[in-house]
Amino acid sequence: MRPVTTALTNPPAERGRLRALDGLRLVAALMVALYHYGGRGGEIAEAWGSSPKQQFPTLHEWFAYGCLGVQVFFVISGFVICMSGWGRPLRSFFASRAARLLPSYWVAVVLVTAVFALPGVAFAAVSPSDALLNLTLLQQPLGADRVLGVCWTLWVEIRFYALFALCVVLPGASRRRVVLFCAMWTLAAAIAEAADEPLLDLVLMPAYAPFFIGGIGLYLLHRDRRDALAWGIVAVSWLTGQHYAVAELWHSPSPGQFSYRSASVIVLIVTLGFLAVLAVALGWLRRADRPWLTTAGALTYPFYLVHEHLGWVAVEVFHQRLALPSWLTLTATLLTMLLLARLLNRYVEDWATPRLRRALR
Questions:
Q1: 9-63: pLDDT as tens digits
Q2: What is the pLDDT of residues 67-111, one digit of tens each?
């Protein structure tokens, strides 16, 4: 009989940092960046001076798939949140999440608002009222303009944290409770999709739930690779996740996005994302466990926050003002955003995160 793991048990799998997962997070962030710089239209076309289709006649079709890095992020998030919430009281879980998200986010909001307010910057800043509201991370449900385009994914993450905290962390994490949470959320999300009820969709997030649930299932496999229910959770999550990804991204109705991605390629990328996290969960990537991957993981979140909007400014400067060719502009912009992310990590996160965590605890 399988022993039931209580909320106070510290599983052996948590003793060491999974550095390969850090590297995978940065890969997902770079996928999203390539999508924002060369795989869609909108404001980035103003930065280039023409559509990315003209800047990257062949590569733009592949850059358009970079938006799937978000789905990979959500799988990783499900894995990490289950791992970090296991055996942790609610206050500690809340303090950890808030201290991780807020310091760099606050600075990024202020930084982007200030840069967009500079004379000569072609992109409009949001109103002062909306900029202040953005500091709460509630701008999207309250209908305000967003300072950071990528913050919609943080709103998705916050709702996931709330569901996991209420259903798993608050009563105490155990294998049985986590499995029940995954099963019930999967069923409830399907019902929400069928009901077409906005409130249910807002709370249960049927389009993104499979990726979080799949990540949770992968963490259960990290604890015990023989767990048949965990394999079932991962399989069902992959099957439903690829369906939602194809339905949402194959032919996007948004005028700023390039349409008609290949459904087969979307399925392939979603599959590779699940397989990559599975490889980490089962220990297949232990040989890739290098210390520099920890640094890569530390850069991911601040890079993700600043890369889109400040990337528009960088592309405009490098390409239109300095007349650098497209590929060199792309490279220079990525390196500039990574450098900025390093500064945020070194001088904001390393200082503010532990202090905020201690204060909230």
A1: 333 344 467 889 999 999 999 999 999 999 999 899 999 999 999 999 999 999 9
A2: 999 999 999 999 999 999 999 999 999 999 999 999 999 999 999
| Phi and psi, residue 199, nearest 5° | -65, -45
Q: What is the DSSP code string of 17-65?
A: --HHHHHHHHHHHHHHHHHHHHSB-THHHHHHTS-HHHHSTTHHHHHGG
| pTM flag (> 0.85) | yes
Cβ count within 10 A of residue 350: 12
Measured CA to CA in angstroms, residue 228 lies from 2, 14, 127, 220, 266 at distances of 12, 21, 52, 10, 27
What residue has token string 């400067």? 317
Q: Residue 332 has which token pair?
A: 């220079």
Cβ-Cβ contacts under 8 Å for 216 (sequence gap 6 or more): 78, 79, 81, 82, 178, 181, 182, 233
Long-range contacts of 89-97 (CB under 8 A, 24+ apart): 89/169, 90/165, 90/169, 90/170, 91/360, 91/361, 92/361, 93/165, 93/169, 94/165, 94/360, 95/356, 95/357, 95/360, 95/361, 96/357, 97/161
Distances from the Cα of 327 to the Cα of 8, 36, 57, angstroms: 52, 14, 12
Report d(CA 281, CA 226) in Å as an integer: 12
What is the C-alpha separation between 60 and 108, in angstroms, rounded?
27
Residue 165 is encoded by which pair of tokens? 């905290």
| CA–centroid distance for 316 within its chain | 26
The two structure tokens encoding residue 96:
């950890």
